[in-house]
Write a structure and sequence with these properties.
8% strand, two-stranded parallel ribbon, disordered C terminus, globular, 4 helices, mainly alpha
């Protein structure tokens, strides 16, 4: 098992959006950049993507500020694609939840 002090956020987003999120971090604080990331995304995924953005802001700011909420800066977080995991895992294997 690998341990990391970074928060892990499981996301169920299309691979194209996940890629866009990892290539440039301006979407965290700039609404215009965020709207650009959401271009072409179905409306059904946009609300969920907004929730992911807020989770990254919240969890990332906790890391950047030593566990204290607020402060404005965002630290590193892991984004784990459960959509990719679901597609790639054999159906006979159970999910491991802790």
């Amino acid at each position: 098992m690998t341990r990391s002090p970074l928060p892990i956020i499981a996301v169920d987003l299309p691979a194209s959006l996940l890629s866009a999120l990892t290539l440039d971090h301006t979407w965290l604080n700039e609404d215009e950049a965020w709207r650009g990331v959401l271009t072409g995304l179905p409306n059904s995924d946009k609300q969920y993507a907004d929730a992911v953005r807020e989770a990254v802001r919240t969890r990332g700011s906790n890391v950047a500020n030593g566990g204290a909420v607020g402060g404005g800066s965002v630290g590193w977080v892991w984004l784990f694609s459960v959509r990719e995991f679901r597609v790639s895992r054999p159906r006979s294997l159970p999910y491991i939840v802790r």
